[in-house]
Amino acid sequence: MSILVLADLHEGQLAGATAHVVAAAHAIGGDIDVLIAGEGVQAAPDAAAKLDGVNKVRVADNAVYAHQLAEPMGALLVELVGDYTHVLASASTTGKNVLPRLAALKDVSQLSDVIAVESADTFKRSIYAGNAIATVKSDDTLKVLTVRTTAFDAVGDSGSATVEAVDVVIENTQSSFVKEELAQSDRPELGGAKVVISGGRGMGNGDNFKLLNGIADKLGAAVGASRAVVDAGFVPNDMQVGQTGKIVAPDLYIAVGISGAIQHLAGMKDSKVIVAINKDDEAPIFQVADYGLVGDLFEILPELESKL
Ligand SMILES: Cc1cc2nc3c(=O)[nH]c(=O)nc-3n(C[C@H](O)[C@H](O)[C@H](O)COP(=O)(O)OP(=O)(O)OC[C@H]3O[C@@H](n4cnc5c(N)ncnc54)[C@H](O)[C@@H]3O)c2cc1C
User: What cofactor does its activity depend on (predicted)?
Assistant: First the structure.
């Protein structure tokens, strides 16, 4: 077996997700290479070379890969895929954008959102918003997988892989990068935060999210939200946790004024400790909560912040 892992990059640096995808590659077994494709990625190859069990880091550093657009990235992978038996990426927006293109160009099926490896050709993935687990076996000679990073513990960083440049440049006439609008925040990134505090419709309006911000600052937490408040325009959609938002699995998840619809649970129920604050003691969120506080969030949150 020989596996190629497409690395996630964040502002040219190696994103934490890659160490989780390499862990999934370990579970499959065989030689593991990591592909870094981007522009000006000096630090990322060295960081990838340190990931445990990585054999070789392949680096395609060119302006055409600057924003990891699906068209040049898919074509690059087709060029590089050679004898690899598996290509893995995280189930991030980039992985979900690039790998289906590779799968289509190679005429194989993609396996999305893999949460466990049974063997080199058999994987588990969650379906129906996490309410059922499908075990799927692929007969394709090339397996193309996106991996749910929260399901695999990150590998360590005591490796020493070799690093080699890839000089394949795919001109891209099909798509172009226009602009990126990023929310500026000193708080940790929602997907990788160890503590997340999320607000739902019970918050009443976007202004009241400042009640969560104060607690988040004290706990070093990221702030998330239910879809109801995103749809209502209280907060931006990059804060959404759930089936159609981000999947998180922090050490501590605090759900405030969130009822616990299955689509929300799909994004947070693997959190290690779940705390729910809700005035309705029959809210479904209490069925998954380790600790529940029944009461009015407008009284509980200021008290919680002052005690912290
Ligand atoms: C295809 C599909 C995909 C979806 N994807 C997502 C997703 O990714 N993420 C997601 O979150 N949802 C998603 N949803 C929506 C989901 O079904 C729910 O509608 C949504 O999660 C409800 O959000 P909520 O819990 O904030 O609101 P509500 O269900 O209205 O709950 C509000 C809660 O606040 C409590 N509350 C009110 N006032 C107070 C107070 N003063 N103090 C304490 N508690 C209070 C209430 O008791 C209630 O439990 C999806 C739905 C569909 C159909």
Answer: FAD
Kindly report the CATH class assigned to 190-307. alpha beta
> Residue of the nearest CA to atom 29 in ligand 1?
259
Kindly report, residue by residue over 262-271, the tens digit of the pLDDT: 999 999 998 9
Angle at CA 175, nearest 5°, toward 66 and 148? 65
Q: How far apart are CA 162 and CA 59, in angstroms?
A: 11
Closest Cα to atom 48, ligand 1: which residue? Answer: 259
Residue 199 annotated as binding site: no
Segments making up each domain of the chain, as ranges: 2-165, 190-307
Q: Nearest to residue 202, comparing CAs of 301, 303, 308?
A: 301
From ligand 1's centre to the CA of 226, what distance in Å? 6
Q: Ligand 1 centre and the CA of 260: distance in Å?
A: 6
Say if residue 263 carries a ligand binding annotation: yes
- Which residues are CB-contacts of 71 (< 8 A; sequence separation ≥ 6)? 101, 170, 172, 174, 175
What fold, for 2-165? Rossmann fold (3.40.50)
pLDDT digits (tens, 9 = 90+) for 54-112: 999 999 999 999 999 999 999 999 999 999 999 999 999 899 999 999 999 999 999 99
